[in-house]
Amino acid sequence: MIWLKVISKFIKAFRSGESPGQIAAGFSFGFLIGLMPFWTLQSILLFVLLILLNINLATGTVAILLASLFAYLLDPIFHNIGFFFLTSIPVLQEVWKTLYNTPFSPLTRFYNTMVMGSFLGGLVLVFPVFLGMKKLVILYREKLEERIKKWKIVQAINGSKIFQLYLKIRDIGGE
Amino acid sequence: MRKKGIIILIVIIAIFAVIVYFAQDRYLERGLEKALQAIAGAKVEINNFHFSLLKAECSWNRIQIANKNDPWRNILETGRASFDLETRPLFWRRVIIKEMVVEDVRSGTQRKSDGSLPKKVEPPSKPGEPGIAEKAKKALEKQLGEIPIFDLSGLGKKLKIDSLVNVENLATVQAYDNLKISADSTFDYWKSQLDLHTYTARVNDLEKKIKALNLDKIDDIKDVVALAELIKKVDDIYKEVNSLKKDVEGKYDALTQTFNDLENELKLAQNMLQADINRAQQLAKLKDLDVKDVSMLLFGSAVVQRTEQLLDYVALARKYLPTAKKLQSPKKEKPPRLKGQDIYFPFKYRYPRFLLRHAKLSAATAAGDTSRAFFLNGDLKGFTNQPNIYGKSTRFNISSKKVSSNQYEIRGSLDHVTEEARDSLWVSAKNFAMGKISLGESKYFPKSVNAEKGDVSLAGFFIGDGIDLKLNLDTSPVQFIFEKEAQDKVAQIVREVLSGLNYLNLKTQMKGAGGDYKLNMSSNVDQLLANQVKKTLEKNLREAQQQVENYVRAEVDKRREEVETFIDKNKQTAYSELEKLNQKVQQQLDEVNKYKKQLEDKKKELEDQAKKKIMDIFKKPGD
To answer: Is residue B203 a contact partner of residue B244, using CB atoms and an 8 Å limit?
Structure first.
């Protein structure tokens, strides 16, 4: 039921009181976290920020799941990008050497091709993702919400016994 | 900032802290046990392991490492151990222990459970370059296998020499075969050189030229000018005959040189005979009983077994304390998905992945079987799995005592800082209770020796694949234990000599490099036993040796005679052909000389006649 809850919250978030910027920021944080291997200093910091900052947590959670799948598919590309930046650019070698010898920075695991590749990929993609998500929320609220409600599949889900049961359980739980 | 978020974060941290608090020690303990088991090849058990990340300290109450060769005993057991970790290297996931104190270090203690690990079917590993232990073991086992069989009683019996000695492999026989081939081609060459047809044609041509001069009608010549012309022609023929003669003489000299060379080669081949006889006697395991062979026969197996154990430890140290590898630029790998590849950059700190800067070892009491337990005191410095990064060698110094008053001191240095490992080890044991030492199975020699007390000193240097190992053992009193009754005179002699011995001094040296290692042993038993046995068995040994020698000589003589006959036959043919030719040429030369003389006489006669006529012209009429 937790997944239903997350998806429900994700859809609800689109029409919640939060601003499109907060929703898009939550999604972007989740996207960055999901793209990189989790046990790195930057991923944990981003996760803490996602929890602490006043941004949408549900879209962040969904973004983590989606981005993890995305990262799995793009793994060879991230590995190649990371290997290239870590080994083939002479100017950066001194930077990496200095970072490698600085306390705390090894905790970021920047020297791993996957971490470096996905981090750089995330940096490049995060702003288009943020802007795209923001526009999508605005579009949803203005035009898509009423149309989607009329979709037969949405009506079927809303009318299904399982969904009704879920709503009852949710209401008992105080939601 | 979201208030609810702070609560969620606190809850997550709290759950994490609880899990770490309750599970961390057990988790780390299992991890450490597994890592040590992989090294020791036997069970490792740690009791009450505790790790504190905040204080960066670690401890355990007891550790037992089972002996993989004797799983009901521990090769190492310690009591409480505690140590502090350096915090800064932890950022790089490097574990560096500042100082470790280990109490109650013991060895050989009895276990309550079997310490062997379940056998795993390991996939066949790729054959790599053999290490120092494999190379040395191979050389030692080869040397042990080459020791002559100490079964001299059988020497009086007829040996099946032809099955023991392969004649075709004898160097002398091979030399004679080669010489025959060489002589064969030499004679073919000479046949072409001494082709009589060529020379006969030249002689016939000269004969024709002489006949054409009509020299039998010299007396008819009245003209001095015609005579001078004839003399010139005869001189030319003389020169030709003389040249032919020199040519034949040259051939004669060259042929003589060829035969001299063949004779020298025959002598050289003959000189190899003694070496062949020695080799054949060795093949038949009949070489003279060497003094050093006695020690090897008696103690070789036991010493080799212990040397191999020591070499295993050296190999183990080299496996887990690897030497420096040449730096290479990172190669692109294909890692599993979402794992990536770690790229390593030059690291300015000397932080190996694991380093134990200093361990103080001590032992106070023994557990279980106290008669076998040892009590130790010692230091271990610079123990690391990356010696090239640490830049210093690993050193250890352990002194130990046993309840029954044995004293040991073991010092060592494992220098794996560069690409070439340089290990050294010194062991000194005083008043050492050796107990019963198995000597292996033999018809003549004892099965084991009981040595009460002894002093042992060992110094070993292992540089690259070079070994220089010296072992000195002095022990007394000794008692040799024979399993079977003496069956013959030799066995009786061995028994008498060894029973009379009260002390044993054994010196062993193993030296070599690159797979070529030699083990030399000497002891106070050597000369004593060798002399006694040799004296008794000299006759049998000599007879057997003579038998082999006669066989080799007979086989070699057959080949020699064959080659000599072949050479002699060709020699006679060649010289006789050459002699015929020489005679013919000499005949021509004699004939030309004869005509030359006649012409000279005729010339003189004509000159005298001319002089007389001139004188007659100047004579006064009426004189």
So the answer is: yes
Verify whether the Cβ–Cβ distance B348 to A101 is below 8 Å: yes
> CB atoms < 10 A from the CB of B277, how many?
22
Closest CA to B118 of B67, B42, B38: B42
Place of tokens 């004189």: B623
For chain B, say whether A3 makes contact (Cβ under 8 Å): no
| pTM of this structure | 0.59
CB B513 within 8 A of CB B135: no
* Shortest Cα–Cα distance, A95 to chain B (Å): 10
Compute the nearest-CA separation of B100 from chain A (Å): 25
Q: Are B552 and B275 in contact (CB under 8 A)?
A: no
Backbone angles phi, psi at B353, to 5 degrees: -60, -35
Q: Please judge whether A52 and B345 are an interchain contact, meaning their C-beta atoms are less than 8 angstroms apart.
A: no
pLDDT of residue B44: 93
* pLDDT tier for residue B329 given thresholds of 50, 70 and 90: low
Chain segment B164-173, per-residue pLDDT in tens? 677 788 888 8
Joined together, the tokens standing for residue B242 give 């003389």
Tokens representing A97? Answer: 């050497």
Tell me if chain B has a CB within 8 Å of the CB of A9: no
The structure tokens listed for B420 are 């070439």
ipTM: 0.82
**Is A74 an interface residue toward B (CB < 8 Å)?**
no
- Considering only the beta carbons, identify the residue of A53, A75, A106 that sits closest to B338: A75
Instruction: Select from B540, B552, B542 the least CA-distant residue to B275.
Output: B552
Tell me whether the omega of the peptide bond preceding residue A106 falls within 30 degrees of 0, making it cis: no
Least Cα distance to B483 among B429, B446, B520 occurs for: B446
Q: Phi, psi (5° rounding) for residue B375?
A: -120, 125
Rounded Cα distance between B272 and B268, Å, is 7
DSSP assignment string, B344-368 = -----S---SEEEEEEEEE-----S
3-state secondary structure of B416: coil
Which residue, among B412, B439, B437, has the nearest Cα to B313 in the 3D structure? B412
**Which residues on chain B are in Cβ contact (under 8 Å) with A54?**
1-2
Per-residue pLDDT reduced to its tens digit, A9-20: 777 777 777 889
Note whether B340 contacts A117, CB cutoff 8 Å: yes
Whether A43 and chain B come into contact, CB under 8 Å, resolves to: no
Look at residue A80 in the predicted model and tell me its pLDDT: 94
The neighbour count for residue A40, using CB atoms within 10 Å, is 19
Return the residue in B1, B88, B341, B344 with the most chain A beta carbons within 10 A, the one to mutate for interface testing: B341
What tokens does A35 get?
């793209």
